[in-house]
């Protein structure tokens, strides 16, 4: 292998398949050969058997639907706030310098530290969970939107200005279209951030939700159910990531 050697599509797929097979082979070896105790690493068979238990006894489908609702409500609210504000900050540096001292430190705030505060402010129902996810996503999405706008090549702005474009036309026809592909990619990344926070969001008073199921399984030491819940989250995350990637390719085909 050479440094940054291009890989063909066929070879990339074969390497990906080999990685997955190797992972499951190692999992089977460690679990079925009792090299690792079941309480630490359940076997694939035990994890598969946990799915019907979660479905019939813990309302797995309903919990997945509730988590989907919470994550994407927080995701949509974050997009509604971060995209317009990020476009404004990336377009007008004075606006950026006004907000940066207030918003930049939030990226270093442990989001779990906000749970008690949000309980006081918003109670323990759905609002608290959605706001928690909104804050967890928006603090990372906003800088990416600002960066996307700032990375639009100045050549395009200079050319449009030379042709007589007004300030509004520069924004509508240069900065917004030029930054949208990067914003679309940022949204794909934020989709993953939302699913990493869902367990924290559902720790408090969540009768349904994948995070709730995993938390309860942990309290009962049902490691197989924890693995099953994590696999459901991974599956949903991968599928939604693929959907956003396909949508980005369709919407911004001109970029490639």
What does this molecule look like?
The chain has 256 residues and is an all-alpha fold. The protein contains 10 helices and no strands. It has helices spanning 9-32, 44-58, 60-91, 93-103, 115-122, 126-150, 154-162, 167-201, 210-219, 223-251. It is globular, with a radius of gyration of 22 Å.
Uncertain segments are: none
Question: Radius of gyration over alpha carbons?
Answer: 22 Å
Sheet of most strands: none
User: Which structural class do the helices and strands define?
Assistant: mainly alpha
The helical percent reads over 70%
Number of helices: 10
Highlighted features:
single chain, 256 residues, mainly alpha, 0% strand
Quick summary:
The chain is 77% helix and 0% strand. It has 256 residues and is mainly α.
Helices and strands, with pairings:
Elements: H1 9-32, H2 44-58, H3 60-91, H4 93-103, H5 115-122, H6 126-150, H7 154-162, H8 167-201, H9 210-219, H10 223-251
